[in-house]
Amino acid sequence: MLGLKKTDATLLIVVTILTVFAPFILNPFPTSSAMAQFNAGYPDLMQRFIIFGIFAIGFNLLFGLTGYLSFGHAAFLGIGSYAVVWMYKLLDYNVLPGLVLAVIVSGIFALAIGFISLRRSGIYFSILTLAFAQMMFAISYSDLIGRFLGTTVTNGETGLQVYTSDPQILLSAGETAPHFLGLVEMRSTYTLDAGAWSFDFNAGYYFCVVFMLMAFYLAIRIFRSPFGLMLRAVKSNQQRMSYTGLNTKPYTLAVFVISGMYAGLAGGLLAAMDPLAGAERMQWTASGEVVLMTILGGAGTLIGPVLGAGFIKYFENIFSKINDNVLHQWFAFMPDGLEDFVVFVIHPFIGKGWHLTLGLMFMMVVIFLPGGLVEGGQRIGRIFRRKDRNSSDAELDAAKQRNTPPAE
Amino acid sequence: MSKSNFTRRGLLKTGAVAGAAGLSLPTYLRADGHSGFTNAPTGSTVTLGFNVPQTGPYAEEGLDELRAQELAVQHLNGEGDGGMMNTFSSKALQGNGILGKKVEFVTGDTQTKSDAARASAKSMIEKDGAIMINGGSSSGVAVAVQGLCQEAGVIFMAGLTHSNDTTGKDKKANGFRHFFNAYMSGAALAPVLQNAYGADRRAYHLTADYTWGWTQQASMQAATEAMGWQTVNNVLTPLASTDFSSYIAPVLNSGADVLVLNHYGGNMVNSLTNAVQFGLQDKMVNGKQFEIVVPLYSELMAAGAGANVQGVFGSMNWNWQLQDEGSKAFTQSFGEKYGRPPSNSAHTCYVQTLLYADAVERAGTFNPCGVVEALEGFEFDGLGNGPVLYRADDHQCFKDVLVMKGTENPTNQYDTLEIVEVTPRAQVEYEPDHPMFAGGDLGACNPGA
Description:
The complex is a heterodimer. By secondary structure, chain A is mostly helical. Chain A has one domain (about 5-300). In chain A, about 65% of the residues lie in helices and about 5% in strands. Chain A contains 17 helices and 6 strands. The two termini of chain A are about 20 Å apart. By secondary structure, chain B is an alpha/beta fold. A 7-stranded mixed sheet of chain B has the order 7-6-8-11-12-16-17, with helices on both faces. A 5-stranded parallel sheet of chain B has the order 2-1-3-4-5, sandwiched between helices. Chain B folds into 2 domains: about 10-180 and about 320-400, Response regulator (Rossmann fold, 3-Layer(aba) Sandwich); about 185-315 and about 405-430, Response regulator (Rossmann fold, 3-Layer(aba) Sandwich). Chain B is globular and about 70 Å long. In chain B, helix 5 crosses helix 6. Chain B has helices spanning about 10-25, 60-75, 115-125, 140-150, 180-195, 210-225, 245-255, 265-275, 300-305, 325-340, 345-365, 370-375, 425-430; strands spanning about 45-50, 100-110, 130-135, 155-160, 175, 200-210, 230-235, 260, 285, 290, 290-295, 315, 380, 390, 395-400, 400-405, 415-425. Chain B has 13 helices and 17 strands. Chains A and B meet through helix 3 and strand 4 of A and helix 2, strand 2, helix 3 and helix 4 of B.
């Protein structure tokens, strides 16, 4: 289907189903129950899952296929956001021109940065990309371009926002929020109440899902293309490729630009959901985050980065909101002394300690599942398929082959 | 490559099923607009959102804000000793929650990043049904969250935010600021500086290179030049700097005799420490003793800088050493619960929570537009700052400003700053269209859905 192999088509369909029904899947607990704390099915977080999924898919095209570890990818995320907000300020709240511009501008920046950075590989490449990203962060955080031109370009640390005094030449009356061609506002949400449960269906979320599925499809095609094979060859031995007379630079530069455009699209979508572009989006922590997402989920796999992105965003948004009060509610059934003790033990891992919990999880994954969450899934899958290992002949061979690590 | 097996009949079938499902859906749909505003509380409780930095450079401030907010919720629900509710001039609050609904709260981590703060506030609004967002410890975050609350149709009661822009260029109808601002710091400090150091001084500014730093520097420069000081130079320092030695060295050769550090938080602790280590305060320039000024103080910063703050002037919104009834009640209440005096960021968050609750009681509704109306032009007393006005033009509170000095001989670990002067409100007031605040538009209140 759509030029995909059967397994890939299945994967795409599974991802489609998961994303379309995410409002149900992410809200498994009744709204009034104590477990509702763990529900993640509200529009903002669902949008973030998808958007950072796109970001990580793009990053994985570069890192997973060529092995080039870019430590400055967040720069493109920020550029995408600024592009969209500038389109809001100049034209109107339609997200489409901004998204197109976001992808183009981030592509241009990726071309420039990639052209220079890709002259080196390994740690030097990482440092170069990090340096560029930090430069761009500093420029936007203090709005150096704006100060040079005597106007506002990034609005510094406050972040770029839309003001009523902006030109907005295409603005129609009553237009106050980002929308798609005037058809639907990104923030409009239908809430479905079904008994004790409540599910949110957000227009912006499904808008992002469409882009994510396109991005995912494109990523599969790149993974399976001769171009993708060439990139994998770069990862396995770039020197040997050069000796055989192949110039690898065009390939790596192309994938760097594609990856930058993915990041630009993700950044643009962030601003499409929420009309603000902050400089923090470009900070090195944001660049580090996408590296974590990809490694956590499984670098070089198709679905891994998306899982990793969801995992990290879930911790950031759900665990940081659990406070002692909530804990006391949960453990209210225990005797007083024991309750206080349990809360005392859990306290460092929640609220302000969410980084600690995430760090521990990351260590666990890297130590016990070097292939990321995807490897975890494969191991579980193997348990259920163990039956055929006890059989004979061809089926045993097949089972053995399945247990060897995948090529990608 | 597998063959596509879509058939016309198959498509029609799926379409019919999907259509039927689509038609049956709306019967479940909740009419979101029934209450007329976002997150109208329906049950016996109302949820407030406390969005403070729990990680990052201002985490200390954030945690202190959280303590104060929890205390405010207790007092609103009639637990504890009532704190400043007893001294508050408005008596609308009964200690039975807000409009009879028990107050609950959710907390979030802003990480002192606009993005994270907005994500956290959005989750409070979308997931937890928060009707008001309070807290924060940086102007960038305050402006970002204020914009969000305006769009979402909830009230934003700003925490610690000192930039002129929060109620200037970036003011919003749904946002309110109790904390003072950079202009007020300048206006309050200038006369004290004139008395202490004379009208003939040459000032050298080191300024944190971001919105707050710029407005703080501009305000200080304007206020000090108005009384006769000269400004020798203004050097912008990157926000991420931790070592300011290279910025301090040129000060000595510049002919300046006062150093103004427009820094906050960790920046201020480091730059002040560097300046003191260079022995600036022991130098004689132009026949005068060299002096250092830190326009915005906080207890937590003063504690971080230790002995280096001794004798250095600065300004504050409130201090626990104030002796009016409100301040005493709050400090006692806070001290009993947490065993330490409250910081001024804790005070402003506590007061903002009470003010919101009171406005709802007086308006008789949680509707943001009703609350805005109740808060605009509201005059009150007994919350630790003397008589205060919430100005309708820009939603900024006008009240006395404290000029502080680092204690020369501290007696305990909390005795870091002493009150030099309480600058009366009239002296720090300004017109709503003052050039430093111009360019913004309050807009109309937004009740959301």
